[in-house]
Amino acid sequence: MKLLVLACLSPNTGNNTTAERIRSHIESAGHTCELRDAAEFQSPTEMADLLSQTPPFEGALAIHLFRAGRLLLDIQLPFGVIFGGTDINEDVKVKPKRVVMEQVLLKARFAVAFTSKLKEEAELFLLSQSSKIYVQPQGIQTEVTERFCWTEFLRSSGISSEHVDDLRVFLLVCGLRKVKDPLFLVEVFSEWHCENLLNVLIIIGPKIDPVFTVEVEAVVKRTAGVFLAQERSQQELHAAMKRCFAMVNSSISEGMSAAILEAMDLGVPVVARDIPGNSSVVQHDVTGLLYSTPQEFVHQSQRLLSDHELRGRVVHNGKLYVEEHHSLKRERETYQRLVGTLN
């Protein structure tokens, strides 16, 4: 079967990684799969032009109910959808978007939610048949490049210190856009850095929103102890994660943060903002630490610094959690089975 996979494909984003992984699952079952960026298409007409090619597509899969799903509404092709997170957490609050997403969900053969909570939210806010929505957590696989120099990474991020090995580097992994709220911790972290110069925060991720990126760059430039790193390949990012003291998430909204799960898999403690998408995978004091305010972030980070038993426990439990609940094999089997229903 020839399948189209539509997603938002900004380089080095979670969406891109998820789309590539799902494509590999589908192709390993013997299907042909073409991955296209939803941003390429401005209208159903442009989508129709793509679908007119030979040999024809026999099915489609959209990642994100609104951004990708709406492009499939006017086509005569069986399709499934995967909730992105912001579609169910944010876009449902906007009535015109919600109306479109309800139509997409009604027409889709199946839908996939990364968490039970996301499925419940979809059932609450959208007209949907509950039996159509399957829960399949993201499958996680990490790969660390051997060609990675920690000192060079720090230097290129603007950190020059004689005590590189003594630094406590907190790595905030996110695309630069408002929903990820990378500036949430900046002011308080800088105050904490001034009390102890070994504590530094590095923000790393692709520049998705150009206007917001300029704002982030300006704030970071004038803030002590906070740095902005150039985005890296997935393998380099995993290498940086593995060397950092803790991985940070400050998002306003998440579907399921692959970066959090990757950090857990790499044996790195996670300090994440207490929002539904994060608390569904981070159990406070068990698999990671949660915070609601910038001040609480500092408090939880100080606990991580002073309590070695706590650090060891969340690292151990986090890795076990990913191994048990985010199996790549189970994810592959689920998508291969669901794609089979598009025949």
UniProtKB/TrEMBL annotation:
CDD domains noted in UniProt: GT4_PimA-like (cd03801)
Coiled coil: none
Glycosyl transferase family domain span: 163-319
InterPro entries noted in UniProt: Glyco_trans_1 (IPR001296), Glycosyltransferase_G1 (IPR052622)
Record GO terms (molecular function): glycosyltransferase activity
Entry superkingdom: Eukaryota
Keywords, ordered alphabetically: Glycosyltransferase, Transferase
Keyword Nucleus attached: no
Protein name in UniProt: Glycosyltransferase 1 domain containing 1
